[in-house]
Amino acid sequence: MTRDFRTVALIGKYQSPEVAEAVLRIAAYLRDRGIAVWLDEATAGTTGLKGSFTVHDFDSIGKGVDLAVVLGGDGTMLLTARRLARFGVPLVGVNQGRLGFLTDIARDAATERLGAM
Questions:
Q1: For the segment 96-109, what is each residue's pLDDT rounded down to a tens digit?
Q2: Count of CB atoms within 10 A of residue 9's CB?
Q3: pLDDT of the residue at 115
Q4: 35 near 7, Cβ under 8 Å?
Q5: Which of 110, 113, 112 is closest to 12 using CA atoms?
Q6: What is the pLDDT of residue 13?
Q7: Among all residues, which ones are annotated catalytic?
Q8: Are 26 and 55 in contact (CB under 8 A)?
């Protein structure tokens, strides 16, 4: 089964402004391909990117996106999975930390791997 991802949410590690660079890089990649990019409220506030993106709470994200890309570690992935589980939104994890079992895409390979999807 193939899926078209037309709207993608980017969700960063809680209170981690260092994800801003990765958010911007992935967002530019997705936008260049005609994909709408949303940020969750916490990521937008922590990174200072509020004015550059459509910002939504988790309920809106769950109802409105085709995919959520989680930038962080396993804890961020688990938190996001818990909040979006009832909506059935597929999740992809980009590892921003040291070792990720659930966030298995390396930060440097994120755009390449997302392109393959």
A1: 666 665 556 655 55
A2: 28
A3: 60
A4: yes
A5: 110
A6: 86
A7: 74
A8: no
